[in-house]
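pinned: reference chain
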Amino acid sequence: MTTALPSSTALSSSPALPSSATLPSSALPAPATGLPAGLSFEVLGEVRGWRDGVELPLGAPRQRALLAVLLLRAGSPVGRDHLLDGIWGDAAVLDGANLVQAYVSKLRRLFEPGRAPRAASEVLTRIGASYRLSVSPQQCDLGRFQQSAAHARALRASGQPGAAERTLAAALDSWPGPALTGVSGPLLDVERARLAELRLAVVEEHAELALELGGHARLVPHLTVLTAEHPYRERLWALLMVALYRGSRQADALAAYQRARHTLMENLGLLPGPELRRIEEAILAGRPDPLARRTPSGAADAAPGHDELSHDELSHDEPSQDTSAQHGAAGFGAGGFGAARGGPRDGGVGGVGGLSLGAHATNPVPGRPRLTLVGAARTFPAAPSASGHGSWPEGAARLAR
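pinned: its structure tokens
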């Protein structure tokens, strides 16, 4: 394991994700049948494809954009008009139907080079005026990311925060740069923002786990960067306040609250939400854990080992005022690996629920994993040209294993 903190622009490779054999069988889709072996795709970064380990020449940017839309709707028919509107928008397209069909034909030849000229495709099929790309979640990096996030949530729920942290760290490490680099269009621009939100939600979940494992000291500098990049995201401020307080930095924790309050008031005219106010009150009162609730009778603070807040308590007891944009992690179309896995408030990894950070660990936990926190910049720059592989913006913070 490396302990150095590499610059975000140097992150171009993607370490392997945990083997699917580590996932519970109930979390895995049924194996695809009738598909040629060896096809795989990436959309978390530049749109790319491989067959049997050899990268495919995916052609012009518009052809890559068409493939990206089909991958994001994998398993579901996508109408020709939807493709035209989503990729070309209001631009005039001469003979759009034939142009889409030409791109589809070129992709079919790449995916199934041994297919007879008039034989039906098993990968990219036509259904009326629609096209369907049949790939399994394991064949695309987005599908694997979502499976790993779901698996991490299951591990956390079963009382294995260390394994959950490592799973999320590997998943985040597999995301090399801004999604859908090198392609554009009205639909893909929306999808790029949605995927950035999906990634940031998992970053928050990973930070919660790292804090639960006693990593408050190492989290502080990276949460400081993240709150600067996402100043309206109250959960990040809450994580920073708790990390500072657990590191015996009460004054700094209160100063972080004042910065959050000033930002919200000056720019949006809003007060911090109940979650931040509750943590500030706990810090002012000097309670052992700022996340522990006071009993209704005003009795002493919760005893150690009983001060953990559940996701349901924080997600549903009081409405959270998260002023950042929430795109959620909902997917598209039945059968696609982007199928909805829960909204921002149901406690899922793709839409992180309330904080549930566990009791304060005064001393490092013996044998706990090294922490891997990945931060996303508040806004991504315009997608680079298809010739570049893309990288995270300079301001993104990242810890490497």
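why pinned: The first helix runs from residue 61 to 72. The CA atoms of residues 215 and 316 lie 27 Å apart.
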